[in-house]
Amino acid sequence: MKTAQFLKFDKSDSQNLALAALDYTTDFERKFKLEQILINFSVNVSETITITLDSALGANYDTVLQEVTLVAEKSLVYRPQGQANFQAGDELRIQCTNANGIGVAYASIKSSEM
Question: Where does 1-114 have alpha helices with state H?
């Protein structure tokens, strides 16, 4: 049986990397399907981005979904391979280093309601 899905509003956050690293955790608090994560920068950056499942089961079940080191790039698109269904209480954590201390990071998460 197929479950109906409805596109939800984006979750988003931004961080001036000259001041601090980006460290954003969602607050879905419901079942959801991850469609994609878009990360854009105000300038080309060389930073490491980590996308992690913050599991409702606790820290022992947290899983890195993707870690990418950008070199002089302005954006990153993460789309899960196959189904990416999450339970109520599961959240996503997006981190971006600020090793070079320049630019603003903008993170946007697109999801569907299950």
Answer: none
Contact 107, 17 (CB under 8 A): no
Q: What is the pLDDT of residues 67-85, one digit of tens each?
A: 999 999 999 999 999 889 9
Domain range list for the chain: 8-113
Yes or no: say if 17 and 83 are a contact pair by the CB < 8 Å rule: no
Identity at 24, one-letter amino acid code: Y
Locate tokens 């820290």: which residue? 59
For 4-34, what is each residue's pLDDT tens digit?
556 666 899 999 999 999 999 999 989 999 9
Q: What is the Cα–Cα distance from 97 to 47, expressed in whole angstroms?
A: 6
pTM recorded for the entire structure: 0.90
Tell me the C-alpha distance between 17 and 83, whole Å. Answer: 32
Residue in 88, 94, 96, 95 with CA at minimum distance from that of residue 113 = 88
Q: What class is the 8-113 domain? A: mainly beta
